[in-house]
Protein 1
Amino acid sequence: MDDERITGLFFARDETALSEASEKYGAALLRLARRLLGSREDAEEMLNDTLLRAWNAIPPARPASLGAYLAGICRRAAFERLERRSAQKRSAELVELTAEMELCIPDPRSGAEADESELAESINRFLAELPAEQRVIFLRRYWFADSIAEASQRLGIGESKVKTTLFRLRKRLRKHLESEGFNV
Amino acid sequence: MNGENLLKSLGGIDERFVAEAMSARSEGRRTAFCAGPERRPRHIGAAAAACLAAALIASAFFASLRRGASEGDVLLGSGEPGSVESPYLLPSRAPQISEAPAVSDAPETLLLDMGAIHINEQESIVSDSAPYFAPALYRDERWGSAAVEEYFGRSFAPAWRPDDLASVSDGGLMATVKRESGEVVWDELYLVYRDEDYPDPIKRGFTVIASKLGLGRCCVYMTDSTETSDVFGTEVVFGHCRLSYGPYDPDTHEPSGWYDIYLADFELDGAQVSVTANRLTEEELVKVVASIISGTDGIELVGA
């Protein structure tokens, strides 16, 4: 079923919207949550939570891309859960991603906090300047938490190219953040 | 802010970018970017500009062929030198059109596409020590530049290097070890370029090591997976590692700082060559290596 019809079911308060959304996007959402949270049980809980939040938000929300909208809810919910956990309880994948992200921060030792929405806006400007392929590689890794092998396979390019592209993009993001005053 | 904050804040980015990445999937060898900002009409102008640029490059290429490729510069792509897809054109491999007279003595600039350069990220790197040669059986010799060039049949001194780096290896002296019979059993050309005024214990600079007998005491080796890059027809393995340096904090074990080390390994005219760079940028290292291979300093990196 296409996104428009599923969204229509949400608007009609028809509960089959949930099963249709789960059938179409459940596997991707489970994988995303599992990589961030590290356990299948937590990921399944996150999927249910995502669908419930979507049910409560649509309407009035009418997402342009249902998949991206649901993935956004799932990702936010996963990070909310992570915030409630102690720092030690992090999946190996998340620790790896976090370490890579550290390389984009101009001065990670400063300890200063950055406004999250301002940061997101700045990253939007950074992403808008990138060629589509580079932007997709960046997002597959740092938004969807793909492994290098998964991103490589999905995009049909070599793992080395994925690694090299990410390496360069981290350096560019660091410069970009610095130029926009995120010296934190 | 830490890495997790930054990772989390990515959640607030434009949903169009997320949709674009969600729908991107390989279709055979090409990746389809089914949705996203590129489809917006305002980008049609950029696409048209790209087509126009491609057409101009192609026409410049054919024009250069007509001129015997002697004027100005050439070309981007991949494939055999001299073909339309060639990423570069070496002076020695330029298409030879005998009836086309040289129009200009202007030096050629070689273009190198950074998009085709793979940097292999290394978890760690390892070093080795020199073998021991018993003085009773072997004798050491040091060769000057002329002997070195005669031995290798070429120079390994980079034709280009960053302005702040100076040679500190006296023009290419080389340590060799010979048996009493005169047979060379150890050959190591060791060229060092450094910024002696760099305000840090780890100086900015690079070394070039070359050997026909095999690099037995290369400073560092890449041990992780490697993919080669094509630099003017020579396969090169580029690598990168981020290393810490001391003194280390006695309580937290935090290092005094970090620096980038870039590596390049390749074979050239029967010699193994290894370039190790401290605190150089990726672009600087690639340009140094390209200048060793091509023998010219007229190199322009594109797509950097």
Note: The helical segments of chain B are 3-9, 15-23, 44-66, 145-152, 282-294.
Protein 2
Amino acid sequence: MIQVRFKLERPDFTLELDTKLPALGVTALFGPSGSGKTTLLRCIAGLERASGSLHVNGEVWQDDKAFVPVHQRPLGYVFQEASLFPHLSVRANLEYGYKRIKPAERRVQLVQVVEWLGLSHLIERDDVAGLSGGERQRVAIGRALLTSPRILLMDEPLSALDSRSRQEILPYLERLHRELSIPVIYVSHALDEVARLADHLVLLEKGRVIASGELHETLARLDLPFAHFDDAGVVIDAVVAEQDETYRLTRVDFSGGSLWVGYVNQPTGSRVRARVLARDVSIAKIMPQSTSITNILAARIVEIRDEASDKVLVKMMAGDSPVLLSRITRRSRDLLGLAADMEVFAQVKSVALM
Amino acid sequence: MGVGAWSKNAVQTMDPNDLQSVWLTFKLAGITTILLLLIATPLAWWLATSRKWYKGIVSALVALPLVMPPTVLGFYLLLLMGPHGAVGALTRALHLGVLPFTFTGLVIGSVLFSMPFAVQPIQNAFEAIGRRPLEVAATLRAGAWDRFTSVALPLARPGFLTAIILAFAHTVGEFGVVLMLGGNIPGETRVLSVAIYNHVEAMEYAPAHWLAGGMVLFSFVVLLLLYTLNPTGRQK
């Protein structure tokens, strides 16, 4: 558990928060630019000094009396730009922090990091400037991991990359998430990244925490801005259940039912994460017949909220917990007479596996 | 005429005093450069990182020799270090004598006079590094001194190279401060520029040519070194 109580006055904004972040899985700090998410991360690292206190897993990193300097905090930090040391080789960059921790504390080894991040062809390179953006950021992540951090802080590690490099690096991040038990605090302003990587979501606005909670629930909260983005949607954690080789489709099961998605080359039982956008979900009152839409889930309406003069957002439960969002016109709502607690059928036009 | 004959000719033309002044000049420049590195490095670091209000005053003081005639600096140092000056009184109380017209006095004058040529390139190099690499090093467990030696110093290397070359060359070429503060004592304070002046005064143009021509060549080689060893330093 990370307990944060910070106050920092700046000419242009004030950071003021008192919150708890889980020291488990990936916690996304999300918010528009200027919301203070990077500043909060820097305060946690000790790169910025706010007044207040910070306890990480019971250890005091900062309180009224103490301020542990950055280099004595067992953290890893990945900056927006890779910021590799230009005077050092790739190997020397990777080993920079590794050499500076006690041998007994080295739980992560160079060979592991090279394997995890696919760095074997880069390790002997001397010219870090000659690496691509994605390669540089992978080296930077490896460099941070090699300090065997007890928490990994990542400040928009993908935002300085082009979309190809982003796609290249995301699988590595997911893999770290799965295979390392290091908690990650991940600053981002890209909803797709958050939906893909996070377990816990903290929304910041003007230096304050607006919402903090489990990813699935928080993304579907109609009182928060997430649900009203153009690419608003929900995240469903599912398991590969069946492969249809004839039609090249894969069935994934989750607690609210199952979905057919484009072929996933993964064995049955693998965990996958799917994202269903609100604009891809339509609603029928009776079970649709003769439709081209494959994925139809029985659902119950939980809440309807007006979104614009012509649109409403409908929040539904499929089964017990997972939630679907559907963006429909206000007219459709009135024509169908949709209201809370009604049993309906959600037609899912497309599912993006992540 | 081969190189051997050429240098033999030079030795014949220059008297032993001239060779002594060449040696003295390089000794002065060498000692001055080493002292300047020791003084300018922390000073440049402070100037590059500090946000104190009096930073501007310190910067201006360091840069003062750039705009002042060397004779002005020499004049005030002479007064300050002379028997009636504050520094002179102190050195006398410590039984060190007075510093004007000694080699030590020249070193002090040269250090002050060449200070901006050492401080400014190093300061610029430190500033060009920015905060980020040092922050990265801190998150990788490097303490303050470790960050300075493992990140700041190597990244500022072009600045140090420029500082060394400029401080050395500028000291070799100095005249006004020497004349005011050191005078013309062979083996003690008679450096190259003063020796040339003496030769010209005495209408001995041949040895003056050898010394002056050597200076031109030396200066050219130094600048050539500076620009070829340090091309990126100039792009930044």
Note: The longest strand of chain A covers residues 233-244.
Protein 3
Amino acid sequence: MKPPAFDYHAPAGVDEAVEILAEAGAEAKILAGGQSLIPLLNMRLVTPGHIVDVNRVAGLGFVEAGPDGVRVGALARHSQVERLPELRRVQPLLGQALRLVAHPVIRNRGTVVGSIAHADPAAELPAVLALLGGSVQTRHAAGGRTIPAAEFFVGPLESALEPGELAVSVFFPALPPRSGTAFAETARRHGDYAIAGVAALVTLGPDGEPERAAVACVGVGPVPIVVETPYRAGWDGAAEAVAAAIEPEDDIHATAAYRRHLTGVLAVRALGQATEEARG
Amino acid sequence: MNEITLTVNGSVARVVVPARRLLSDCLRHDLGLTGTHVGCEHGVCGCCTVLLDGDPIRSCLMLAVTADGHEITTVEGLAGPGGELSPVQRAFHESHALQCGFCTPGFLCTVTALLRDNPAPTEAEALEGVSGNLCRCTGYQNIVKAVHRAAELTAEETGPDDDEAVR
């Protein structure tokens, strides 16, 4: 099918964009990469009165890595972030997750900030932001704010962004010292949304054993589910903690019970890989 | 209605389109370039893949107005000026990498960009490279063979030290 008719706006700057968004209110959808929004338009699952295309907004196509972490502007494509030379050193989890996002051709157009703002609980990047305790920087007509990841994801496809608010960048904190990350997921076909997935972050103590560990689970709840996973001479307790915390549902691809089991298995696998990464 | 300017296969085209016109439909209906095929229209099948400023993208997941001012290469733009097939097109022909051909324009554009960025892909890289394109009749074996054959043909024609020509 074809997109429904809408009023089209292509602002050249952030100020102009937030003015248009303020006027259009809840009738507006923001178009960046379009890899989620345009399918929704084509299938007429959304019929916004206004599309605010931010692809011409100056100054949003950046990705910067510093000692504190990685800041990604609203127009940085997945592929652009993937190619950042410092990514592996500063925050390897972002690269591990990006490789699992759809296919390379989709990643040429889709944006990291768009994926976060879309807040799909089955997507990889919201889980990464939630696990790392990152944040979303926004602008609106009256100013702007920083929304911590823990408050950002409200429900399936629902974020804390208000009508009139534009996510201008997201910040992924750097890998702490003596730490490693991993992303494990199972999908029916490579590039599909995962049946379940787990991002893991492990920090070693001075004795070289895991001291702090946490996972964020994908596709098994209304939002990415972050679980602290203690290491007790192994990760068996972690699998139990994960299975108790998640809220999987049945669908055509898998039963809730299978998803619960699978998420525990993936958590143990990801935690093991992250520990090895931390040990270098 | 919006007046936009696209550079398609090296020619500048000015078209007037409604904002909701998909790039895929703009290419097919407004510019008559029906080589770009439309399969699923939600980004899954890869048939509508074209090159936007050199990088493969789904033309069904982009509004034509968003493409204003950009350069687009469709399957019609892959062959040489005299109509001679590109190495990727010849490799698909030689390797019997198509049957009905519906998905082929998308594969050709995807593989053209893949080999430009990675002139000698491994088996895994070739598979990953075409994983976003669906074919419902060849069974993929010959498509993957064609990726490797295209890499050989490109290497033969450009010579080992001629990196610029590969790009």
Note: The helical segments of chain B are 23-30, 87-94, 104-117, 123-130, 141-158, 163-166.
Protein 4
Amino acid sequence: MLETFLQFLFSGITAGAIYALVALGFTLIYNASHVINFAQGEFVMIGGMATVFLADAGWPIWAAAPLAVLLAVAVGVALERLAIAPAREASTVSLIVITIGASILLRGLAQLVWDRNFHTLAPFSGEEPIRVLGASILPQSLWVLGGSLLAVLALGWFFGRTLLGKAVIATAHNRLAAELMGIETRHVMTLCFALSALLGALGGVLITPITLTSYDAGVMLGLKGFSAAILGGMGSATGAVVGGLLLGVVEAMGAGFLSSAYKDAIAFVLILVVLVAVPRGLMGARGAERV
Amino acid sequence: MTAALLEVAGLGAQYGRVVALHDATLAVAAGELVALVGGNGAGKTTLLRTISGVRPASAGSIRFEGRDITRLAPARRVGLGIVQVPEGRQVFAPLSVEDNLRLGAYARGRERSAEGLARAYRMFPALRQKRDLPAGSLSGGQQQMLAIARGLMAEPRLLLLDEPSMGLAPLLIAEIFAAIADLKRAGATILLVEQNATQALKIADRAYVLETGRVVLEGSGATLAQNERVKAAYLGM
């Protein structure tokens, strides 16, 4: 019983770490612009797919993965510069619709440039499971957890310790005052899209050896990340991480102990329950850190 | 006036179709404290925001040291030394007092920032005690001091102060005006927007009266304080 529980817990935390990365991406852009970027999942897909195709072309993983992340960052920057920035004066809802359009476009491009098949990637350090208290952990899970933890710590350092990070917080909090301090708020927005793309793509690279990827893998991951962000309280970075992990674990437990057919449904039921009980999300209350 | 630091000529600005500023012309010489008085909706804040570049000008020109900056990006204007302390303080509430100050020096670089911090804490000792607290936790008066100190961190050559006394208790208003007078004595060039016309005219070298987006009167602070129309409209006499 304990082994089974641990087994589900490990796989839940692994999935949850990816949801957390995607949720952080949502949070970053939301705080900087109040836009919910529905192309967030596509960053994950680009990270995974680009790594797969570069690896197939003979690139070693240590070169393919960063290049794939870089590609996603370039796409994120292009999305902001070409689609969001020109529509700056439009309403938030219009901007959100633009991101939905962008996600459809990116999926289409991925089908065209790559293909419509499922792909996998060789695990970074073997497939020999590690035994822990009777349960087994894939080495790739440790990559996912380590990579996500590193990303979260780096993000915390950036916003907590650097002037540029604080300029981003300042812009999110009060754009006018930030402009009056000489902060180039246009660039701040671009930076937020770049960072979100980086987080998403990193998640895509790390999770692909476990879950497979395809041109439309971003749809479900985007929705889960969005759910995690809502669950934790939209706008809260801590909430995004907590929401992501919680969602992953609940989902894995539900799939394991109830039925795997309900895996996705459980995520969305959980959101409904939390939103009814705590409409602003778990960490959405006043006092939560805004990044 | 020959050596004007700031020259605004025929400046217009609008929000959609609503004209907020109409043919505004004024000048500020180096070392001068110029007050801009007028009622609610007279266009004072719009004028300052257009000078800072966060609102586009729809007509006219703004020159700084003789250079046309009408179309220059806001950040570049801060780089030139045009620094605004916005209406309603607008400190970055979630960030600490010290981070707010550092962001004030965003356009100036790290070394100058350290010097500026020491200067800011000398000027407003209360801020030093609260340096690690979130700016949002300060009282209204302290937030106004922080807003001014944050503006000074950018080493302004022209300081634009928008309603620094707004919403403050009389004792604090006196303190803020004393700080502004100190800045002037230290040689700062200031364009001060105020609804509190009595105080503003008292410390100003010159002043302009703005009504429905137009400059309707100008003169020395003392002269305007004696003007019947100004007295009736803005001094409550």
Note: The CA atoms of residues 62 and 68 of chain B lie 6 Å apart.
